[in-house]
Design brief:
two-stranded antiparallel sheet, ten-stranded antiparallel sheet, 147 residues, mainly beta, 3 helices
Length: 147
C-alpha cells in the first residue's frame, strides 16, 4: 500500500494515481457508490441518479459502482473517479456515449459527502462531462451548484 497524503487514502501500489490526476484534486477523498441514470426516470436514462455511501442499503435494483469523490483544485466542482476495470461492465459503459456522461438534470450531493469534504455543494449540475483516463482510473470532472 502507498499512502497519498494529498488524497488522504491508502491506495494499492498497482493503483497509484498519477501526478497529473493529483494536480486536479484537492484534499479529502470520499469513497461512495454511484447509481447511474436520471432521478426523474427512476434511474433509467443517463446521468448520475444517486450517490450513496458504501454501507447504505437501498431498495433500488439499479447497478451501483464504487467511486471516489474529491473537490477539484480549481474550486469549481468535483472529481468523480472509478477504477478502469469497471469500463468492462456493460451497465457502466453504456452511460458514456462518445466518452461523455450526459446529465439532463442535477443530482443531489448527499450530506455525508458535503460533511467529509467540508463543502456547501448541494448538486452536481446538469451538463455533458468528458470521461478522462489517468493511470488505472477514469474520472469525470463535474460542475456543481452551491447552497
Amino acid at each position: 500500500m502507498v499512502s497519498l497524503p494529498h488524497l488522504n487514502v491508502l491506495i494499492p501500489e498497482k493503483d497509484i494515481i498519477s501526478p497529473a490526476f493529483q494536480s486536479l484534486s484537492l484534499g479529502e477523498t470520499v469513497c461512495c457508490e454511484i447509481i447511474f441514470g436520471s432521478p426523474s426516470m427512476d434511474c433509467r436514462g443517463t446521468g448520475i441518479c444517486k450517490i450513496t455511501s458504501t454501507e447504505e442499503l437501498t431498495s433500488l435494483s439499479c447497478a451501483r459502482f464504487r467511486a471516489h469523490i474529491t473537490l477539484r483544485r480549481d474550486g469549481h466542482g468535483l472529481l468523480v473517479f472509478f477504477s478502469k476495470d469497471q469500463l468492462a461492465d456493460a451497465a457502466f459503459s453504456r452511460h458514456f456515449q462518445e466518452d461523455k456522461l450526459v446529465m439532463n438534470e442535477p443530482c443531489v450531493v448527499p450530506e455525508f459527502i458535503r460533511t467529509s469534504l467540508n463543502t456547501d455543494i448541494q448538486y452536481i449540475s446538469a451538463g455533458r462531462y468528458q470521461l478522462q483516463a489517468e493511470g488505472t482510473y477514469v474520472f469525470i470532472s463535474v460542475d456543481v451548484c452551491r447552497g
